[in-house]
């Protein structure tokens, strides 16, 4: 059980900005941009590396939900970045797969 599962089950608080039956989205506790939201599937899926074709629908919904949210809060036309870290070298620290939405200011070039 990860910290994100505890947010899903309301065992710990979070600033939740979107939720449906399949996805929850909340503000990152240590934001790296003026807008930094995490989109998390409610089904347990530790990493992108663990995803299979059975996960294709939720992966797509995760992306589209982030894009919808960016439009809704008015950052889409200026632009934003979505990032998914995978495993140790990718910088993943919470092993429940999640998509970062970053925006609200110019983000600069994407570092390696
Ligand atoms: P990653 O490094 O891609 O696994 O991203 C994990 C993210 O979760 C980091 O950006 C953390 O700041 C964020 N995070 C960790 N704990 C919490 C929490 N309790 N509420 C919101 N965000 C969190």
What does this structure look like?
With 112 residues, the chain is α+β, with helices and mostly antiparallel strands. It has a single domain (3-103), classed as HIT family, subunit A, CATH 3.30.428.10. It contains 3 helices and 5 strands; from the N terminus they run αβββαβαβ. The chain has helices at residues 3-8, 56-72, 87-90, and strands at residues 16-19, 23-27, 35-41, 80-83, 99-103. The chain has a 5-stranded antiparallel beta sheet with strand order 1-2-3-5-4, with helices on one face. Strand 1 (16-19) and strand 2 form a beta hairpin. It is globular, with a radius of gyration of 14 Å. The chain starts with a helix and ends in a 9-residue tail after the last strand. Adenosine monophosphate binds at residues 3, 14, 26, 28-30, 38, 85, 91-94.
Key traits:
about 110 residues, alpha+beta, HIT family, subunit A, five-stranded antiparallel beta sheet, 3 helices, globular, binds adenosine monophosphate
């Amino acid at each position: 059980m990860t910290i994100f599962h505890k947010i899903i089950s309301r065992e710990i608080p979070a600033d939740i900005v979107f939720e449906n039956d399949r996805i929850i989205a909340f503000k990152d506790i240590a934001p790296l941009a003026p807008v930094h939201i995490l989109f998390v599937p409610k089904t347990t899926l530790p990493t992108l590396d663990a995803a299979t074709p059975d996960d294709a629908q939720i992966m797509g919904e995760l992306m589209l939900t982030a894009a919808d949210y960016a439009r809704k809060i008015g950052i889409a036309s200026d632009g934003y970045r979505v990032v998914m870290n995978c495993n140790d070298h990718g910088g993943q620290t919470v092993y429940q797969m999640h998509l970062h939405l970053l925006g609200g200011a110019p983000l600069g070039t994407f570092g390696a």
